[in-house]
Each structure stands twice: as structure tokens, then as C-alpha cells.
Amino acid sequence: MDDVETVCPVCHDPIYIPVEEYAELLEGDVLECENCGAYLEILSLDPIELVAVEGGEDGFYVLCPRCEHEIAVEAEGESVTCDNCGYTFTPDWSEVEADEDDERDYRN
């Protein structure tokens, strides 16, 4: 059987879940995106709906100025290296969003 495919709401890369593992998942379980390391809570299984929890409500995100990949930022003033393209930059903190204030809909 084919894997169940969904998309990471943080990096937007595909996530493939083996059917055997999918059958054992419950709403509220947390998965880790293999590409970006984001922790994703399962809100619904049919259809599969994920939301980023990234270790709590303290996460901050910025887009890489080179490739527009979304990156978690830990502390103000620190430089960040994009795990997608390798570009290193210091975020403009006026553009950083707290995930608790982010109203984007992560539904697939």
C-alpha cells in the first residue's frame, strides 16, 4: 500500500507516513518533520490536519531572504543559517512573527 502523504505546515515539504504507522496514530499525537525538525500535532486524521507546535508557544519564525524558506529563530540578534539553502543572515526582528499570533490556517 502507498504511504499517506501530507505537507509540513512549517517547511511545506511533503511528509510520507507509512500506512501501518498511520493506522496507529491518534488525534493529539505529535510527529516530527524529517526535513525541518518541526514538531507537528495531529488535529484530525480524516483528512489529516497538522499544526506546528515547535516546542510550545515560544517559537518565532522568519523567511530566508534568499529562498523564502520559513526558519525557526531562537533569540534576537543572533544570526541564522537557512537549513534549505545555507544562507546565513541576521533577521530583521520587525518581520519576526510569534507563532501564537500567527493566524495562518495550517489545514491541508
Protein described:
The protein is mainly beta and 108 residues long. The chain folds into two domains: 4-52, Rubrerythrin, domain 2 (Single Sheet), CATH 2.20.28.160; 60-98, no CATH class. The chain contains one helix and ten strands. It has one helix spanning 19-24, and strands at 4-7, 14-17, 30-32, 39-45, 48-52, 60-63, 70-73, 80-81, 88-89, 97-98. The strands form four sheets. It has a three-stranded antiparallel beta sheet with strand order 3-4-5, with no helix packed on it. A hairpin with a 6-residue loop joins strand 6 and strand 7. It is elongated. The two termini are 21 Å apart. Residues 98-108 have low confidence and may be disordered. It holds the Pfam family Zn_ribbon_LysW.
Summarize, please.
This protein is 6% helix and 34% strand.
CATH topology name of the largest domain: Rubrerythrin, domain 2
Mean pLDDT: 78
Give the class from helix and strand content and strand pairing. mainly beta
User: Uncertain segments of ≥5 residues (pLDDT<50)?
Assistant: 98-108
Give the overall form.
elongated
Number of strands: 10
Strand order of the largest sheet: 3-4-5
**Mind summarizing the main beta sheet?**
3 strands, antiparallel
In the CATH hierarchy, the architecture of the largest domain is: Single Sheet
Annotation field: number of helices:
1
The CATH C-level name of the largest domain is Mainly Beta
What's the N-to-C terminus distance? Answer: 21 Å
Radius of gyration: 15 Å
Number of domains as seen in the coordinates: 2
Query: What helical percentage do the residues reach?
Result: under 10%
Classify the beta-strand content into a percent band.
25-35%
Order of helices and strands: EEHEEEEEEEE
Pfam families: Zn_ribbon_LysW
InterPro entries: LysW
